[in-house]
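hi support,

uploading two proteins for the ticket. first:
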Amino acid sequence: MCIRDRGYDDVPVLSPEEAGRHIAAIAASYDFSFFEHWPTDQIGHRGGLDEAVAHLEHIDAVLGGLLSTWDDARGLLIITSDHGNLEEKGHRQHTRNAVPTILVGRDHVAHAATIHDLADIAPVVRRALGLPSH
């Protein structure tokens, strides 16, 4: 279903690649931006394997647009999740599988070395923004 079918006539319809470039442009205007994407969770719980594959291909195209525009010198891009469930379609629960974290941009190697689980993301964000640790 298109967003326009839901009554949002003023929202531009972008290709996945355009959406990724748009996210990068928005992020460049701020010291910190956060983009939350919940459909993977919904598909993980209720969707079929074909739907999951199609959605991951869609996300891949968005990330392609985002990464093609991302300015490494401008800041740090963190891509992660709070749990797994899309990768194992045999049940509807969250999995205990490791969730990858992808870091791109300024000081990404140093920051990546400090991430061992989800609790390590907030301290990385604080360091990247030059904020005190507490």
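and the second one:
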Amino acid sequence: MPELIKAKEPFKFSTRLHLSELTGLRASTLGQLLALVKEVSGSCIYHHTHRFLQQHQYLSPEPPNDFAYWVTDILGEDELGEKLASIDTIQYQTIRSLREKIIQTIEEYLKDNAPAKLRFAHPGEEFYFIKSVSFILPTNYVAYDLKEFAEVLKKITIDSIYFHIFEARLRLEKPTNDFSFWIESALGDKKLANSISSFDPYTSTLEDLRKKIIRIIEKRIT
């Protein structure tokens, strides 16, 4: 086995606690939904595009977003629902750009489908905006090289994996996930970093994602 590179700065693993908080905002029509999507905080957009993933962390494939579900099942706008569901979340590096894509999709649909403006949700079926509140906490785990990194990956919770793969990239607007960033910047292994960042995390369970990352790292060090 080749000698492993030791990083001057270790990877410090964090984890998260999550709360969902009602905002008091709700929409009964597509027009109202569009107006509020433009105004609500990024934590709302994050919640409604990642809620399923956060609550059902062992399930796959790619989860639907709440906007797609509501316009399809409540308003009966199947075409728009399909367009919203087809938005590939992984292509967007910030919540801001994801929000803009959702806005663009709804605006273009309303422009070509005037009757959609007149459809109202029944009382009790309005779209209620909820925001995601996260508390990021340090763990006792650190890693200086790839072997230590792989060993810690076997022990940490899926909440920790979720934070470093999803939340750090989107909500903190980092260029890539935390794992790939550290492997390239601290260890100089761009090839391995790119291999990990090329995974589509939305099509795997978090446990499967953990196994994939461990497997590719262990293959690299042997």
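thanks. also noticed: Residues 139-221 form one domain.
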